[in-house]
Amino acid sequence: MADAHPFSGEPATTREAIMQATFHALREHGYAGLTIQRIGDHFEKSKSLLYHHYDSKDELLLDFLEFMLAEFEQAAPDDDLPPREHLDAVLDHALAAKLPDDQREFTEAMVELRAQAAHDDRYRDHFTRSDETFREEVASIVRDGVNAGVFRDVDPDDVASFLLTLVNGAMNQRVTAEETQTGDVREEVEAYVQSRLLADE
């Protein structure tokens, strides 16, 4: 997975520029204080382009989330990695002990948007698909490990669901609580991998 959010460089297209402006405005104002006008303040081109492409703040934010889902899929670890190393790469990224400031701000923005799914079906649909993308990736890794004899004969879907729930919980805690022990959680996950997943040598 990428080590930084996709808005750290210069945008190559108008859509990328809009997505970058949306990220910076969301980070600055939060969901409640966000308006298309405030997104426009971070957009170097004509603000009329925003109103031309999007009728509302939520329509723009839902496109932002679609953009992020595509970025996540492209930034996934190399499929050519062996199953154990592949799983480690995913977990090391998702459960990093410390986040750089820009990644923390990005995580805060995503958690705030995810909260909208509690009462908006459009957001719920997006995050359901986003979760399924992560779940399928992990299940595929575990399945490959089982077939290769690296992992025990576990149910890949059950393992993936467990790890998804843990990662989502860690992501929410690290941006909504004063202190987090994500590094300790990563160590416990490693103990789980060794005792539950790794096949006996």
TrEMBL record:
InterPro entries: BetI_C, Homeodomain-like_sf, HTH_TetR, Tet_transcr_reg_TetR-rel_C_sf
Annotation: DNA-binding region: 35-54
Residue ranges of domain HTH tetR-type in the record: 12-72
Alphabetically ordered keywords of this record: DNA-binding, Repressor, Transcription, Transcription regulation
Source organism superkingdom: Archaea
Gene Ontology MF terms: DNA binding
Gene3D superfamilies membership: Tetracycline Repressor, domain 2 (1.10.357.10)
Protein name (record): TetR family transcription regulator
Origin species: Halobacterium hubeiense
